[in-house]
Specification:
- The structure is a single chain.
- With 162 residues, this protein is an all-alpha fold.
- The radius of gyration is 19 Å and the shape is elongated.
């Protein structure tokens, strides 16, 4: 993302997130399903799901970026060196603070490709409930990716023009 890029409004941003979910989640799942079958798809999905402690770590990075953004935005810098330090710290935290959004995009795009074969090959009541849960979780992941992208754009480092 370019530092001076304008923020997008809600509709185009949500559309962009849907496209990213398809590119990072749905298309890889479609390829795995085509070449490895349902078993390969389940194995693929298990492989892209990080352990909980990594999710917490990435969440911590997002929170730390938010704190750095608030300090950078709302604290007074009396010297050029302090201003430069705050800007560089903000730019660094911006780069590492939103690694979690890619995970949510991949989940949002891949879960429908797990749910659909479950419905086709095992249409019991229990599997139908699991598929519905997966689809709802996919929508929730898309909304989290949207929120993280919105927050990323809102807290992007900007060069102040005098």
């Amino acid at each position: 993302m370019h530092i001076n890029q304008k923020r997008k409004t809600t509709s185009p941003l949500l559309f962009d997130e849907i496209i990213c979910a398809i590119v990072f989640g749905s298309i890889p799942c479609l390829l795995v399903l085509q070449f490895s079958g349902v078993e390969g798809l389940v194995s693929f999905f298990e492989g892209i799901t990080p352990p909980d402690y990594l999710i917490y770590y990435f969440l911590l990075l997002t929170i730390l970026h938010s704190v750095v953004w608030a300090i950078s935005k709302y604290s007074l810098s009396l010297s050029d060196s302090t201003r430069t330090f705050k800007y560089r710290l903000h730019a660094l935290s911006y780069q590492v603070g939103f690694n979690l959004v890619g995970f949510y995009r991949a989940i949002a795009g891949s879960l429908p490709f797990i749910a659909i074969p479950i419905l086709i090959y095992d249409s019991t009541r229990d599997s139908t409930l699991k598929a519905i849960f997966m689809l709802l979780f996919s929508i929730a992941s898309l909304l989290v990716a949207y929120w993280l992208t919105y927050w990323q754009q809102k807290t992007a480092p900007r060069i102040k023009e005098f």
